[in-house]
Design a protein that fits this description.
Number of strands: 8
Strand content: 5-15%
Order of helices and strands: HHHHEHEEHHEHHEHEEHEH
Strand order of the largest sheet: 1-2-4-3-5-6-7-8
Number of helices: 12
Shape: globular
Structural class: alpha/beta
Radius of gyration: 21 Å
C-alpha cells in the first residue's frame, strides 16, 4: 500500500482568514443594524466594505482550495478538523481536487467541493450543521470521543431521518466519499440525513452509531425530524456497523432501547452475520471488489430472503471497492433505487402494513 501523507497546513492563509473574516462579517452586521443607507440607490449598490464582507463570507471553495484552509474556515468552528480523516496519514493530497483516500476508487472532486460548500453555506445561513453525541464529561473520560459527532444535512421538517456511516477499514472515517455524498443527496430529496464521524473500530464504531441514533431520538423535536421508519446507510466498515445495529438494535451497543430501522442500505461489505429479524435490506457491490466478496453478500441476502425479509441485491460488473455514489460507473443510479426502496417501507409503515 502506498504511504498516505498528512495534510499540509497553510499557516499564513489560516491566520489571514481567521482575522479578516470575523471582522468583515461584524462590519456587515454593524452596517445593517445601524440603518446606514446614504442615497436611495444603496440597496442596489451597497458600500464597498459591505460588498467585500458578503464576498468573503460566501466565497466558494474550489478544487484548488487547500484542505487546511477548509478545516480552518471559521464557518466550521472547532469541528472543521472532522471533515477529513483525523488519522491524517490516510489522507493524501493538499487540495480538495487532489484528495484521495485508501480503498476508494471513484472519488469525485466536484462532489467533494459541493459538499464542503453546502455545509459552509448552511452554517453561514445560521443553520447548525454539527452535533456532539457525547457530553463533555464523557469526552473527558474517553478522549477518543472528541473525534465523534454528526454532520446534519437538513431535508424537510418532519421527514424521516437517515444515518450514513462511512467506511475506512476501521482505521479511519472516509466521510468525504462514503457518507457525506449520500447524506447530501438524501437531503436534496427532502429526507433528513446525518453523516456519522465515529471512533474507528468494530465495537467503538457500533457504540457511536448506537449513541447517534439515541441522540437523534432524544432531540427529534429540536432537529425537526420524524423517528418513524428511519434508515441506516453504510459502506464497507460502515456497512458492518449498519448491519449490526439493524440486526440487534442500539441497546446491545450501549444505546437506548429503541425501534430498529425501517430499512438498511449496505454497500460493499463482507458482513455475513444475521439474526433473522433484520429490517428490509438493500445492498450493492461490484464483482471486481477484492475486499468485500459479492458472493458472501449474496449468501447473506439469500438467507434473509429465505426468512421472509424483503431484500434487493445488485452486483455491478467490473466495479471495484468503494464506488460511493457510483457516478459515471455501472452503479450509477443505485442511490435513487435505494431511496425508492426506503420510501416503500415508509409508505407501508404509514399505512399500517
Amino acid at each position: 500500500m502506498k504511504k498516505y501523507a498528512g495534510m499540509v497546513p497553510d499557516g499564513g492563509t489560516k491566520a489571514v482568514r481567521t482575522k479578516i473574516l470575523p471582522f468583515l462579517i461584524s462590519l456587515l452586521l454593524a452596517l445593517a443594524e445601524s440603518g446606514c443607507s446614504g442615497s436611495g440607490n444603496d440597496a442596489a449598490n451597497p458600500p464597498l466594505a459591505e460588498r467585500e464582507a458578503v464576498a468573503v463570507a460566501k466565497a466558494d471553495f474550489t478544487k484548488n482550495t487547500p484542505l487546511a484552509v477548509v478545516t480552518a474556515d471559521p464557518a466550521f468552528g472547532s469541528f472543521g478538523r472532522l471533515l477529513f480523516p483525523v488519522q491524517s496519514s490516510y489522507c493524501q493530497g493538499d487540495t480538495l481536487g487532489e484528495l484521495s483516500l485508501p480503498w476508494y476508487s471513484h472519488i469525485d472532486p466536484r462532489k467533494t467541493v459541493e459538499i464542503v460548500n453546502t455545509l459552509k453555506n448552511s452554517a453561514l445561513a445560521g443553520q447548525r450543521i454539527f452535533y456532539d453525541i457525547y457530553t463533555e464529561e464523557e469526552k473527558a473520560a474517553d478522549p477518543a470521543r472528541q473525534d465523534t459527532g454528526l454532520f446534519f444535512f437538513r431535508g424537510r421538517a418532519g421527514k424521516p431521518f437517515a444515518v450514513c456511516s462511512a467506511g475506512g477499514g476501521f482505521a479511519y472515517v472516509g466521510a468525504l466519499h462514503d457518507s457525506f455524498p449520500h447524506a447530501l443527496e438524501l437531503s436534496k430529496r427532502g429526507y433528513n440525513a446525518f453523516a456519522l464521524i465515529y471512533r474507528p473500530g468494530p465495537r467503538t464504531g457500533c457504540e457511536d452509531l448506537a449513541r447517534a441514533i439515541s441522540f437523534i431520538f432524544a432531540h427529534a423535536g429540536e432537529l425537526e425530524v420524524s423517528t418513524g421508519c428511519y434508515s441506516l446507510w453504510g459502506g464497507s466498515a460502515g456497512g458492518r456497523m449498519t448491519a449490526y445495529l439493524s440486526s440487534y438494535g442500539s441497546a446491545p451497543f450501549g444505546g437506548a432501547d429503541l425501534p430498529r430501522p425501517g430499512a438498511a442500505i449496505l454497500q460493499y461489505t463482507g458482513h455475513s452475520d444475521y439474526s433473522g429479524s433484520e429490517p428490509p435490506t438493500y445492498a450493492c457491490v461490484g464483482d471486481n471488489d477484492d475486499i468485500a466478496s459479492w458472493r458472501a453478500m449474496e449468501r447473506r441476502h439469500k438467507a434473509l430472503a429465505a426468512r421472509g425479509i424483503e431484500t434487493v441485491f445488485h452486483v455491478y460488473r467490473g466495479l471495484e471497492h468503494g464506488f460511493g455514489l457510483g457516478t459515471g460507473t455501472a452503479a450509477e443510479g443505485w442511490l435513487e433505487e435505494a431511496v425508492s426502496f426506503w420510501q416503500r417501507q415508509i409508505d407501508k409503515s404509514q399505512a399500517g402494513v
